Amino acid sequence: MRARRETWFTACGVELLIRRPRDLDVAKVRAAGGGWSDVAIAAVVDWRGVKLSDLIPGDVDQPVPFSAAAFEEWVGDRMDVIKEVTVEVVRLIDAHAAQRQATEKN
Fold this sequence. Notes:
This protein is α+β, with helices and mostly antiparallel strands and 106 residues long.
């Protein structure tokens, strides 16, 4: 079921796997005082082609496995990425809601 909510998205040249948050996921983040950017950051579950030198300038060009903690730390200084991911996550949420409404009408 999770895989059906996943889609690869490129933000500022970085390939990220986004898992569309469920309504409950959004509600939990928002109830805890989080904003849409927090929802978006939590929706990123993988990356492709990220090297250590992308995370730490001047370090080796060695691929880095995804870690939610590493992503959150890195993206904290990349508002350009956060903005693009947030827009995409909101788009995915809106598309899902529209699809659900269309299904309920039938």
